[in-house]
Structures are given as structure tokens and as C-alpha cells.
């Protein structure tokens, strides 16, 4: 999943420059216009549909760059979920900013990302004939604004299903949508954890206590070591799931298990990393002026979106129980593939 280093550096530079100019959550419209000019708003869209024709490897680096600089913007929801659904259904994709969600039987969805910041919402629902998708004007929806603990828009919506004319989709598109959404959040959490690790190392190296750097104290060393270990485990599990998704075009029989592994590892890692980082930083890490909260709060929010930690743990338990003692090794190693 190698990506051109110059492209990665350019992505990082864009978000770094934005954060130097704007406070968190500000200047989103200006940044969106800049990203559109650079071809990054629809990075993975087909070129014949107005996209840049890149792949998930590049998209993952874009998400990491944004999360790693503390920039929250609906790139994943727009490109990897909403516009992907429209392209898959052979529907027109224009320049409107979009998000996507799954509606229940009553036409409702809770905690949908970025609805109030989007011009259109791509809705997915199931009727008696199967799954359908429609591109809906946000103004036609009933929207109750809300936010997650990181301050990002997470809105409740309701649509009139009887008034929607949806395009039929095969069941495997819904399966791919849920996998893609789950991995998006895993990638973003991993980027936040990596930044928290870097901040913790820098803080303990530069700050002194009792005449020596914090990094010289064994208790502090243990806290930072646990941050590093958990971050590495989360990244390895997420990269493994993403590699299998790309290898199989999101159709591997083992992919659901690997996504569950990634999300479980990411969820538990976030608990350890956030707790230890705030212990390492002490009182200064709880202030609004310090940037630590720009990464700890999103990490805690994102790990519970598109499935809670408990739900992913339950899914892993189900896989292990079905495999049994004789099949567990093959499940973990993929030997049965």
C-alpha cells in the first residue's frame, strides 16, 4: 500500500498550514475549496465521474494527515461513502458536499456525521425488495442538530420513505458500505493515537521535574511505553484489515473478522492511550489552550461510531465461538483462506 511520498507530504502541509491559520472547527469552507482545487475532495472517485482516480491507499493517507493535524472535515463521508454509493448505483455526482447514512424502517437515522454541513445526504435503506439508495436534498429532511464529544456535527435525521424513489442495490454493496465506514474510523483513530504518542514523547523529553526530564522517571517511561505499544497494535490490526480489503476488493470472506479485530484493537487502545497521555501531561493537558484534547476527544468519539467497542468485541466472541478450539488458529492466521 505504498503511496508517493511527495503526495503524502503535500497532504500534510495543507492541513498543517490550515491549523496555523484557523482554530479547530473554523475555516472549513475555505479548506474544502482548497482541497477541491487540489483534487482531494473526491480523491477516489472515477475520473470519468469527476474524481481523481486514486485508491484507498491514498485516501488513508489523506485521512491520517487530517486527523494527525487535528483537522475535522467530512472527506471520508463525502468521498469514500456518499459519492462511492452514487457511483456504484450509476447515479450522477456533482460538486455538492455530501454525507451518507443507513435509514431504519421508519426512515430515521441517529448521529449521522456532518448533515448540517452537507448540501445533500445519500441515504441507504431496505424495503421488501432489497436495499435502495437515493441522493436527497438536506433541506427536505427533518434534521435535529447534535455533536459528538469532539464537537463534530452528529445529527439525527428523518426522511419520508414513501416519497423517496430509490435505486436498487445488491446486498453486497450494503456490506461493503458498513466495512468501509468501520475502517474509516479505525484509520482516523490510529492517526490520532500516533499524534498523541508523539506529543507524549515530546512532553516527557522537554519537561523537567525535580531537576531531570520526566522521561527519566520509570513510571513515566512505562506510561509512554504502553501508549506506543497500544498505538502500534491498533495500527497493525487496521493496516492488516485494509490490506485484505484492497486485495479482495472488499469481498474477502475473512474481511468481516479482520475489520472486527481492527475495531476492537483500536477501541481498547484508545482507552489506554488517552488515559496514559493525560497522566503524562498532567494538569496542562486538560486545558483548552493545550492541543492534546484535539486528538484525545476525537479518538474517544470515533472509536464508538459505526459500531461500539462492545459490539465489535461481541462480534469477535461470536467468531471465536463458531470456530471452536480446533478452528481458532486457522481463524486468527487466515490459514483457511
Specify Rg, calculated over alpha carbons.
Answer: 21 Å
Number of helices: 9
Q: Count the E strands.
A: 9
Shape: globular
CATH homology group of the largest domain: Butyryl-CoA Dehydrogenase, subunit A, domain 3
* CATH class placement of the largest domain: Mainly Alpha
Low-confidence stretches: none
- What share of the residues lie within helices? 40-55%
Sheet-strand content, in percent, reads: 5-15%
CA(first)-CA(last) distance:
21 Å
The CATH architecture of the largest domain: Up-down Bundle
**Overall pLDDT, averaged?**
95
How would you portray this structure in words?
The chain has 337 residues and is of the alpha+beta class. The chain has three domains: 1-71, no CATH class; 77-169, Butyryl-CoA Dehydrogenase, subunit A, domain 2; 172-333, Butyryl-CoA Dehydrogenase, subunit A, domain 3 (Up-down Bundle), CATH 1.20.140. Helix content is 54%, strand content 12%. It is built from nine helices and nine strands. It has helices spanning 5-21, 28-37, 56-68, 75-88, 171-206, 218-248, 255-281, 293-302, 309-333; strands spanning 98-102, 108-113, 120-127, 130-137, 142-144, 154-158, 167-169, 208-209, 212-213. The chain has a four-stranded mixed beta sheet. A hairpin with a 2-residue loop joins strand 8 (208-209) and strand 9. Helix 6 packs antiparallel against helix 7 and helix 7 (255-281) crosses helix 9. The chain starts with a helix and ends with a helix. The mean pLDDT is 95. It holds the Pfam family Acyl-CoA_dh_1. Residues 17-86 form the Acyl-CoA dehydrogenase/oxidase N-terminal domain.
